[in-house]
Amino acid sequence: MFLKDFYNTQDGSTIITSTQASTFAKEIAHDFNPLHDIDAKRYCVPGDLLFSLALEKYGLSQQMHFTFAGMVGHDVLLHFPENAVDHIDIKDKQGKTYLEVDRSGEVSRDTALIESFIRDYVAFSGQNFPYVLVPLLEQENVMFNLSRPLVIYESMTLNFDHLDFNQASVEMLDPKIEVDGKRATAFLHFQMKADDKIVGKGFKKLAISVPSSYETEPMQAFVDEYLNRKHTYLGA
Known about the structure:
236 residues, Porin, alpha+beta, 30% helix
């Protein structure tokens, strides 16, 4: 599968270099979050890469729930258990859990289906900022700290009606946001379609620190800089 370019194996564990993580974020997900830059002070591996590796390893199940329990930094050796069960913990050698996977129902190991779904989902996920999150924040008159934005990928849920298809696309549904003081939770709902028929639904859950009221000009400047980084990289 194409993911072989984005991880290495070492002593029976999986290790993701910062170059591999950053390349995946930018070239597969089109996600230009500075946290995924090689030299970022708070660098972390994209959650969507961990999700993708879990699908490659364990297949696509009819019902799946992913909980992102920790940020994977530089040179972390991850253990993906060989004996896949209904609940899977991906940990480092010290026993710290970074990703929890709960699954049930039928399982597809069709590599073409899994690759196409990974590519479509992470492309969808990578567009959440600025096109989905910024309007939600403006709607609720809140915003994150532009000098140190804190947006945490908490979890993602998939529910398929069946897995009897060759390729599925991901389409956005109405997103929701709930604000409680200086914390907000965004629910980014989507549906999966195959041959123009809905075959499942899911949602991505984000936790956002929102310490201040929304300011249009500073946020627009932040978005413009983000998109400039993206277009400069992809144009090159």
